[in-house]
Structures are given as C-alpha cells and as structure tokens.
Design goal:
Structural class: alpha+beta
Number of helices: 5
Number of strands: 7
Helix content: 25-40%
Radius of gyration: 16 Å
Shape: globular
Strand content: 25-35%
Order of helices and strands: EHHEEHEHEHEE
Largest sheet: 7 strands, mixed
Length: 178
C-alpha cells in the first residue's frame, strides 16, 4: 500500500476530456471489484468514456493523480441533478462517482475528496451537499452517514444504470455552526 506522505502533494484538479479514458477505466475496475464482492452498484461499461469526456468538458469531473500516468481518485460534482432528485432541484453540490483506486485505499482519500467537494460547493455560494448510494449497500450508507450525511429518501435508480434497483438520496448541510 502506498504511504500517506506519497499522496500529500497531489490536489484534486479539474479533469479535462483527455482524462475520461482513465476515469472510465477506474470506474470499470471498481465495478468489477463490486461484482466480485457481491455488491450490486455499478456494472463495467455502463458509463462510457465519451460521456465522461463531455462531462469533463463542462467542468463536472475532478481528478487526483499521483503522477501524470497514475489516476488515484476521481469525483463528479454538478449543480443540478434531475436524473436522481427529480423535481427537487434545491441548490446543492451533487456528488457522483466518488472513486478511489483500490491500491490507494486506506489513505483517507474518500474523506479528502468529500472535503474538496464541500469546499468547492461552498466556494460557489451553496451550503448543501447531496449524493446517492445504492440502497442495498449498507457499508457505503454507513460511510456517508458517519461523515455527516442524512438519508432523505429511497428512489429508483435512473434507467441508464443497471447495477441496483434503488438508491438512497442523502444530504449534508455545509452551513457553519456557531
């Protein structure tokens, strides 16, 4: 496992369309790991690099690279999410696709990415963070609740995704408490 210090200098940066192939490859690796471990959340190939390139071109993807060749982590952050949240379009930073390469697990990267998303959301004048998690993935749901997210409701997974039938929508206030 890489040492924590080896990851310290790498910040999250805006992805470019050129990052899309690496992001898609990481997602497919994680999707296969999920299948191999009985987690019905993502399927390999269901989120093509061409879609990620379009999203990166709109400034929606961020990457963390240990070096130019090594993608350590990625996340998508958008300001509207009708696909998952329907008519409820409360201003929020909507987190999707938070991914950490398996060889970099155990370095608190998930927490650091959540912090990055919160900081980026606040910098855009928004005080609410939202995300979704597979309804049948209690480990992931607990992870997010441990980090301050509350469950709002369960809903059907949008039709273009097939790993699970339902997701739990979650949110977290980013307001500073006095």
């Amino acid at each position: 496992m890489p040492e924590r210090d080896s990851l310290a200098p790498a910040p999250m940066v805006a992805a470019t369309p050129a990052d899309a192939t690496d992001i898609a490859h990481l997602r497919d690796r994680l999707a296969q790991w999920m299948i191999d471990n009985g987690i019905g959340q993502w399927l390999p190939g269901e989120y093509p690099a061409v879609t990620m390139a379009e999203e990166a071109g709109r400034g929606e993807w961020f990457v963390w690279r240990k070096s130019p060749e090594i993608l350590t982590a990625a996340v998508r952050l958008v300001w509207r999410d009708p696909e998952f949240w329907g008519a409820d379009q409360t201003p929020a930073g909507y987190i999707h696709g938070l991914m950490v390469a398996p060889e970099f697990r155990g370095n608190d990267l998930g927490v650091r990415i959540l912090r990055f998303c919160a900081d980026h959301t606040r910098a855009n004048g928004i005080a609410l963070q939202r995300l979704d998690a597979a309804a049948d993935n209690p480990v992931l749901r607990k992870y997010y609740t441990t980090h301050g997210f509350t469950e709002v409701r369960e809903t059907r997974l949008p039709p273009r995704f097939h790993g699970t039938a339902h997701v739990v929508l979650m949110e977290k206030s980013l307001r500073m408490h006095r």
